[in-house]
Design goal:
- The protein has 367 residues and is of the alpha/beta class.
- Helix content is 35%, strand content 19%.
- It has two domains: 203 residues, Rossmann fold, CATH 3.40.50; 143 residues, Rossmann fold (3-Layer(aba) Sandwich), CATH 3.40.50.
- It contains 14 helices and 17 strands.
- The chain has a seven-stranded parallel β-sheet. A six-stranded parallel β-sheet has the order 12-11-10-13-14-15, with helices on one face. Strands 4-5 form a two-stranded antiparallel sheet.
- Helix 4 crosses helix 5 and helix 8 crosses helix 9.
- The chain is globular, with a radius of gyration of 20 Å.
C-alpha cells in the first residue's frame, strides 16, 4: 500500500483544511493511498474531511502564533512556546523518523511545520513543503517589536530551505523563483447539493443566507440580536458559541455539526469573516461574494485581500465594524454582488498529479 506522511501545523484549521484537500485529491488519483498524519488538529476534522485510509498521530508539530482571539496574537506566549520546540531535539527527530519509517512512509509532506522536514531528512525520505506563506514571512512583521522571534525565524528559514520539493499555493505571500510548482487555490471539494444543505440547515431554497466564519477560532459575536433586522436573510455561524439564544433567522452550529463546511460555503449567498487561506479558497471555488475582515499585521492578510479584490466579488469589512455590528448595514451590498459561475481548477488536483509522479531516487513511488 502506498503510504505518505503529512506534518501539519495546528495553527487554526486552515492548514489542516488545505492538507485535507490535498490528501483527498491524492486518494482519488492514487489507488489505496494511505496517509499518516502528524498534528494536534483534532481527529474529528480529518474524519469529516477524508474518506480514504489514514491514521492520526497526535504530535506537537509546530507553534505558529499563539492567538488571543481570531485577530490578535500573543507574541510573548509565542516565544515561550517556540523555546520548547527549537532547536529540534535530536532524540525527538530520530524518534519520529523511526516511527515514519516503521509506518512505511515513502515521502513526507509538510504544511509549514518545519519539524516535518527535519524528520524526513532523518528518515531518508523526500520532503515536500507546501505553503502560501511560512512562519518566516509572518514573524518578519513582528521582529522589531519582539526581537526574541528572530533566532527562531532564522532556524525555520534554514529548515524550509532544506525541503526537497517546494509547492506554493496561490495567493502566495513570497513567490519563489525556485519553487517546484505553483498551483491555483487549494480547497476541499463540496459533496452535497445546495438544496440538500439548505434542508439540513432548515433554510428555504428561496431565502438568501450568509455564512459568518472566523476560520475555526473562537470569536464573540455581540450583535446577534441585530441580525433580526433582516428577517428574510438567514445567517449561519459555525464555532463555539456562548450565546444561549439567537433570533429565528440565526443558526448557531457547533464545530462538529455534521455538515461539511465547504458544503455550507457552496450553498450560501455570501460569506463574511476573517480572511484566511482555506476560507478564501473555498469561497473562490464556490464563486460567492466575500465580505472579508483583514488581519492587522499578519503579512498573509494583505496578499489575500489583494487577491479577493482582483479575482473575486467582495469587499473589506473593518475588524471593529465586525465586532460592534456596524457591518450589518452592508448586508444588502454584499447580497447584491454577483455570484461568479466560471469553473476554476482546484490546486489540490494539480498537487495530486505531482505526487503521483513523484520520484524517489530514480524510481517513481510504487503506486
Amino acid at each position: 500500500m502506498p503510504t505518505l506522511a503529512y506534518f501539519i501545523t495546528p495553527h487554526g484549521f486552515g492548514h489542516a483544511a488545505r492538507a485535507c484537500a490535498v490528501m483527498a485529491a491524492a486518494q482519488r488519483h492514487i489507488p489505496d493511498l494511505r496517509w499518516e498524519i502528524f498534528t494536534r488538529t483534532p481527529e474529528w476534522f480529518f474524519a469529516e474531511s477524508l474518506t480514504g485510509p489514514y491514521a492520526l498521530h497526535p504530535t506537537d508539530t509546530d507553534v505558529g502564533l499563539v492567538q488571543v482571539d481570531a485577530l490578535r496574537a500573543d507574541l510573548s506566549a509565542t516565544v515561550e512556546r517556540l523555546a520548547g520546540l527549537l532547536p529540534f531535539a535530536p532524540e525527538r527527530v530520530d524518534g519520529l523518523a523511526s516511527q515514519v519509517n516503521a509506518l512505511g512512509c515513502q515521502a513526507l509532506l509538510c504544511d509549514i511545520a518545519p519539524l516535518g522536514i527535519a524528520v524526513a531528512q532523518a528518515a531518508g525520505i523526500p520532503s515536500v513543503l507546501l505553503e502560501n506563506f511560512t512562519w518566516v514571512d509572518i514573524y518578519g512583521e513582528y521582529i522589531l517589536e519582539c526581537p526574541a522571534l528572530r533566532p527562531y525565524s532564522e532556524q525555520m528559514a534554514d529548515w524550509f530551505a532544506a525541503a526537497d520539493y517546494h509547492i506554493q499555493t496561490e495567493p502566495v505571500c513570497n513567490p519563489s523563483a525556485n519553487a517546484t510548482l505553483t498551483v491555483p487555490p487549494v480547497s476541499r471539494a463540496p459533496r452535497a447539493g445546495r438544496s440538500a444543505v439548505r434542508g439540513l440547515l432548515s433554510i428555504p431554497d428561496g431565502s438568501p443566507f450568509l455564512l459568518i466564519t472566523m476560520g475555526g477560532v473562537d470569536f464573540q459575536h455581540s450583535y446577534l440580536d441585530r441580525l433580526a433586522h433582516f428577517p428574510d436573510v438567514h445567517f449561519v455561524l459555525p464555532g463555539n458559541h456562548t450565546a444561549t439564544d439567537a433570533p429565528p433567522n440565526v443558526h448557531l452550529l457547533s464545530p462538529q455539526s455534521g455538515i461539511f463546511h465547504p458544503d455550507i460555503v457552496a450553498a450560501s449567498d455570501g460569506v463574511v469573516g476573517k480572511i484566511g487561506y482555506s476560507t478564501l479558497a473555498e469561497v473562490y471555488a464556490a464563486g460567492v461574494p466575500y465580505g472579508y475582515v483583514p488581519r492587522p499585521r499578519f503579512r498573509e492578510s494583505d496578499v489575500l485581500s489583494a487577491f479577493v479584490e482582483r479575482e473575486m466579488a467582495g469587499f473589506a469589512i473593518d475588524a471593529d465594524d465586525l465586532s460592534d455590528g456596524r457591518w450589518i448595514e452592508r448586508i444588502p451590498d454584499l447580497l447584491a454582488l454577483p455570484r461568479r459561475g466560471e469553473e476554476r481548477r482546484n490546486g489540490a488536483e494539480v498537487i495530486a498529479e505531482f505526487l503521483k509522479g513523484l520520484e524517489i531516487g530514480s524510481n517513481p513511488i510504487p503506486y
